[in-house]
């Protein structure tokens, strides 16, 4: 794994700094996967500005959520679908946890299923985070989101218990269940000791009927841009155009 460091001082918003570095990886003519979350909002703003200034052209994006779709429309970013464009050059997204070997937990923004589908359709996956998202072991900072069908959602509790996790149904401020853009529930699963065997957890979740997605992104990431108050760190491949 290669690391590159750029000294940065007086950073006002680390998410914005990471996003502005990530947009350097986008080339004219690219088919992009557009992630979801607060960091990606900054990326979309930077991408929209470059399209307006015509420093980038012939870009088309596949959004991973209705929120990203709405913002992209507002910024004039052309959109398509995976049905029309099943192979993407690059997906740029955020993460809730990143390990040194670039494994991820994603999904606190609620778009984990679509994010994984889009990432899997992409040649490269670029993740942008601030330094607080770096962890030595998955599950130590964030719960693991698991997206499930509403039908029979409580039947998964026995599996979570065997895996050593405590599940909690994600709810909105009014106490009603949070519903994903695909119409499903999310169970946020806490592992008291962290996730010691992520491959085992992934295999068990993938095999359970009614579980339609989870936030373990293992072995999918090409590069991570990490912004801290002192520097920008590139983990993995440096995808930026210089």
Q: What features would you describe in this structure?
A:
It is a single chain. Residues 1-12 have low confidence and may be disordered. The chain has helices at residues 14-22, 38-52, 66-75, 112-120, 157-162, 198-207, and strands spanning 3-7, 31-34, 60-63, 88-93, 97-98, 104-105, 122-130, 144-148, 166-169, 185-190, 211-214, 216-217, 223-227, 231-236. The chain has a 7-stranded mixed sheet with strand order 1-14-13-7-4-2-3. A 4-stranded antiparallel sheet has the order 9-10-8-11. A 3-stranded antiparallel sheet has the order 5-6-12, with no helix packed on it. Strand 5 and strand 6 (104-105) form a beta hairpin. It has 6 helices and 14 strands. It is of the alpha/beta class. Helices cover 24% and strands 26% of the residues. Helix 1 (14-22) packs across helix 2 (38-52) and helix 2 runs parallel beside helix 3 (66-75). It has 2 domains: 3-135 and 218-236, Rossmann fold; 144-213, Alpha-Beta Plaits (2-Layer Sandwich).
Q: Give the termini distance in whole angstroms.
A: 20 Å
- Give unreliable regions as ranges: 1-12
Number of helices, where a helix is a run of at least 4 consecutive DSSP H or I residues: 6
Outline: globular
Please estimate the helix content. 10-25%
CATH fold topology of the largest domain: Rossmann fold
Q: Please give the CATH architecture of the largest domain.
A: 3-Layer(aba) Sandwich
> Tell me about the biggest sheet?
7 strands, mixed
CATH class of the largest domain: Alpha Beta
Approximately how much beta-strand content do the residues carry? 25-35%
Using the CA coordinates, give the radius of gyration. 18 Å
SS-derived structural category = alpha/beta
Write down the overall mean pLDDT: 94
Helix/strand order, N-terminal first = EHEHEHEEEHEEHEEHEEEE
Give the strand order of the largest sheet, numbering strands 1, 2, ... along the chain: 1-14-13-7-4-2-3
The tally of beta strands, per DSSP, is 14
Please give the domain count: 2
